[in-house]
Structures are given as C-alpha cells and as structure tokens.
# Entry
Amino acid sequence: MNILEEFFTLNNGVKIPKIGLGTWEIEDNNVENVIKEALEIGYRHIDTAQSYGNERGVGASVCEAMQKSGIARDKLFITSKIRAEYKDKKSAADSIDTSLKTMGLDYLDLMLIHSPQPWKSFRNGDYFSENVEVFSALEDAQKSGKLRAIGVSNFLKKDLENIFKHCSIKPAVNQILTHIGNTPFELIEFCKSQNVLVEAYSPIAHGELLKNSKIIEMAKKYNVTPAQLCIAYTLAIGTLPLPKSKTPKYIKENTEINFTLSNEDLESLKKIDFKDYGEHSRFYVFGGK
Ligand SMILES: NC(=O)c1ccc[n+]([C@@H]2O[C@H](COP(=O)([O-])OP(=O)(O)OC[C@H]3O[C@@H](n4cnc5c(N)ncnc54)[C@H](OP(=O)(O)O)[C@@H]3O)[C@@H](O)[C@H]2O)c1
# Structure
C-alpha cells in the first residue's frame, strides 16, 4: 500500500490523508523548508497548533505549494489547534480568525481543542462548561466555512461525553498520545464506537522508542527501521499517525510502510509497556508537572 495515497473518512464525510506530518518543535523559520520537502515526497497532511509558533511558516508553505507547485488547496489537509489556555468562546473564536490570518488561508481542514485543561492544570479539573464554549466557537466556524472539520485533542471519555451531551456537532477527531508501550486501548475503542477518528500523536514517543531493544529486534525481522515499525503499529490498530521529523531522509522513510505486522507480533507489541520519555518527560503530555 502507498500510505500517501490513502485516506480515512471523517464522520462528516470529509476525507483525511492517512498519515500527517507533525510539526511540533520545528521553528517557524525552518518549517517552510521541511514542509516543502514533505510535499515533494507526497505528504498532503500537515499538523500544527497555535502554540507551536509556526503557523505562519506552515501557511506560507501551503500558499507556495499552490502558487509554485500547482498543488490545489483541496488536495491539502491542514490542521491547527486552539491554545489549551483559551477557555471561553470569544478568545477561542478570535484565535480561529487569528490562525487563518497568520496562515494566510481562507479555511483550515481541521481545528482541534488542544487540551481539555490549560496545560498548567493538565488532567486536573473538568473544564466541562469551558470546553462546551470553546467547542461552540469551533461549531460556528465550521458552519461559516472557516473550518471543514472540528475536533478535540487529549480528551478522555468523560471529556468527549460532555461534548456529545451539550454540543450539536460531533467531534470528528480525538488526537491523543498513542504509541507502542503507551496505547489507551479503551479510549480508542470508545472513540471508534462513536465514529470519532483517533489520531496518534508522538507515534515514536518523541524519538525515545527508537532506543528500545524489543523494537529494534522486531524491526530487523521485518527488514524495516524502528520508526517504520512504530508507524505500522499505529496504523494496524486503526489510528492515523502524525510522525514528526525535520530530516528529509526520515520524512521519506516514515511513509514507506510496505509491510504488514503478523497478528502474533502485533499482539506482542500491544503488551509492551514503555512510558520513559527521558529528558522529554518535562512536557505535560509526557507526564511533566
Ligand atoms: N495534540 C497534542 O497535544 C500533541 C502532543 C504531542 C505531539 N503532537 C503532534 O504529533 C506530532 C509527532 O509527535 P512528536 O513530535 O512528539 O514526536 P514523534 O513523531 O513521536 O518523534 C519525533 C522524533 O523522532 C525523530 N524521528 C522521526 N522519524 C524518524 C526516523 N525515521 N528515524 C529516526 N528518527 C526519527 C525526530 O527527529 P528529527 O526531527 O530530528 O528528524 C524527532 O526527534 C507532533 O509534531 C505534533 O504535530 C500533538
């Protein structure tokens, strides 16, 4: 299979390319080069966020791709995320307009609530009414054509149920930490049962999984790289991988997933426990406080 030519269909009928390029920690002044490379390789799906500080560069590369490479806007899929700290309708709505302006785009394909809580309170407190407000700003923006699809990120079952109960549009996506060794199986099953697509962020554990001996060993068996094994796993469990790399060789390698894991190997990968993010443990998403 050529993963670059495959799609998932979101619950509102919008098609989303099956792999996206993550851009967290790619500086604004470098992201244009990285995306240019990725588009040449064949990526059409780019994941950014207001908090990554590179929306300008992501937007500029999209505009350049349209003008210079003749890639039609409707062949590209661009995601951003509302800052976790914006928890009222006005700041959320204003931030959507600011993202569009910063990126120089008329619309985004997908916009998410970055986290149910502001980062400093990650996993502390419900913020139910606040998230309903932010989601209603997303609903308005989808209705007015500024966004093609809307969703959430880092949402647990209770956070999703709150949105289902109080909002009129169902989130199309829940983007969550998902990789070998740290896979929220119950949450993924719940999302699938609700027709909410799960996007797997940090599919190679921010790079830390590449040092794991079991993964290195199994990758050798399939004659692939550890990163390819990690990405194949996220696909095998029905999630959409968002690997990040700024290295051209890796950006390409991460799309060459021309093998299928045996059931036995998939089951053994599901049993691995790996939550040691080393120096990256300071980040809230990896358990940092
Ligand atoms: N919603 C959220 O809260 C959230 C949180 C975290 C991440 N995300 C999204 O998910 C994306 C991916 O997650 P991530 O950035 O944490 O990390 P990741 O994709 O799990 O890992 C990225 C690291 O792996 C390295 N790498 C990538 N491919 C490789 C390969 N083939 N061989 C060797 N090394 C390779 C990269 O190196 P180089 O870059 O140096 O090449 C980088 O150091 C983010 O960029 C972001 O878009 C979302």
The longest helix spans residues 128-143. The radius of gyration is 18 Å. DSSP finds ten helices and ten strands in the chain. Residues 22-24, 47, 114, 153-154, 175, 201-207, 210, 225, 227, 242-247, 250, 253-254, 285 surround NAP (CB under 6 Å).
